[in-house]
Design a protein that fits this description.
The chain is α/β, with parallel strands linked by helices and 258 residues long. The protein has a single domain, classed as Rossmann fold, CATH 3.40.50. The chain has 9 helices and 7 strands. Strands 3-2-1-4-5-7-6 form a 7-stranded mixed β-sheet, with helices on both faces. Helix 5 crosses helix 7 and helix 6 crosses helix 9. Bound molecules: benzoic acid.
Length: 258
């Protein structure tokens, strides 16, 4: 998760109310992790703690960390028996401590991936594993292309540095992992059409996750742009069943510290 302290823009209640699919989809990543009782596992980007709680129930000694104070506070309230800390993947400094580092839907926010992978590598014991899922190349591109296009229609030039995500291919990410010292034992890039609940699902998603695309744009223009995005994408992403579907593309990787 992104942006701690005064600039923490994460609304943990809204996240739990409207975006709980994020941890729901992480359930089968837990299967890939295959945790064993009493293993020490770091949940990197734990959000409001749902998957950390699941791992805790499985007998894992879990530590959840997140860059967002709001998320960590909410996790502590929901799961008082589990340790959660505010820590940034970019600056964490843990040495040879964990059997596994687990990360769901977080690493696409980390725009200096090699530094984060190095921190993860350092945090693992020899033979420890890194199991992660996050947005891969082409993730939500239909949505973000349309937002950028509509901003242009309103005369607003989009600056690439405003793009808040890093969406690598598995070739690119596996290479970085290997450079740091991991043996990559699994890598997959797949489509994950993701329902965004309700008629306002697309708008809610944009307002929760994509606000930095609108930096410097007035609320009025933002509203007009989102209206236009909804109008244009309705025939592509709005299903007859009455909900929006986001064009998620995920990557999953597993690496062993050798
Ligand atoms: C994702 O899980 O792929 C994602 C979530 C929020 C914003 C962008 C991507």
């Amino acid at each position: 998760m992104a942006n701690a302290g005064k600039n923490d823009r994460w609304n943990a209640n809204l996240y739990d109310e409207k975006h709980s699919f994020v941890s729901h989809f992480g359930e089968d990543l837990v299967e890939l992790l295959a945790p064993k009782k009493d293993e020490k596992i770091l949940d990197l980007g734990c959000g409001t703690g749902d998957l950390a709680s699941r791992l805790h129930q499985m007998g894992v000694k879990i530590l959840g960390i997140d860059k967002s104070e709001n998320m960590v506070r909410q996790a502590q309230i929901k799961y008082p028996g589990i340790p959660f800390q505010v820590q940034d993947a970019m600056t964490m400094s843990i040495q040879d401590e964990f059997d596994a580092v687990f990360s769901n839907a977080t690493l696409h926010w980390v725009k200096s991936p090699k530094q984060a992978i190095q921190g993860i590598y350092d945090a693992l014991i020899k033979g420890g594993r890194f199991v992660a899922e996050f947005g891969g190349k082409g993730n939500v591109q239909i949505i973000t292309d349309e937002i950028i296009h509509q901003l242009g229609e309103f005369g607003i030039a989009f600056k690439p540095e405003q793009f808040p995500w890093y969406y690598p291919s598995i070739g690119e990410y596996s290479t970085l992992m290997e450079q740091v010292g991991f043996r990559v034992t699994f890598a997959r890039h797949f489509d994950r059409p993701t329902p965004l609940i309700g008629e306002n699902g697309l708008r809610n998603w944009i307002e929760m996750f994509a606000v930095s695309l609108f930096e410097g744009v007035t609320t009025e223009i933002q509203e007009l742009v989102i209206n236009k995005v909804e109008e244009t994408l309705k025939s592509v992403l709005f299903k007859k069943s009455g909900e929006w579907t986001a064009d998620y593309k995920r990557i999953r990787v597993v690496g062993i510290k050798e």
